[in-house]
Amino acid sequence: MRFSVRKRRTAPAVIIVALIDVLVVLLIFLMVTTTFKQQPSLKLALPASSAAEKTGAEEHPPVEVSIDAEGIFRLDKESRPLTVDQLRGQLLERAARDPDLKLAIRADKKAAWEKVVAVMDIARAAKIKSLSAVTRDTPKP
Prior knowledge:
This protein has 141 residues and is of the alpha/beta class. The protein has a domain at 58-137: Nucleotidyltransferase, domain 5 (2-Layer Sandwich), CATH 3.30.420.270. The chain contains three helices and six strands; from the N terminus they run αβββαβαββ. The chain has helices at residues 16-34, 84-97, 113-125; strands at 48-49, 63-67, 73-75, 102-107, 130-133, 136-137. A four-stranded mixed sheet has the order 3-2-4-5, covered by helices on one side. Strand 4 (102-107), helix 3 and strand 5 (130-133) form a beta-alpha-beta unit. It starts with 15 loop residues before the first helix and ends with a strand.
């Protein structure tokens, strides 16, 4: 009887350098593709929103224009009412001083839409690029 001698197989070698290359390519691909997202040019929210963003301490807080139910304008929580021309003058002056000025509109639910559009037109004339609406959270049941 003749027995054949089996040769030992060599253990398969894992090339780590190739795996690292593949990992780096996947990482670069994920980093590049996740940066392409559409950002709306105008952030506008409804007066009551269940998904309202919480505002924290910001480096440059926005200038707030408040519009009450009667359509009276107030700037930065002042008690003094402003006319459309006074508001335009103050926003143009502030936008000239700070080109990265942010504007937030705080309008009452019963305020006329015409007043909100007037503030938006003033912001466009002052070349204010960041415009948002202040909302409140909806009560949770």
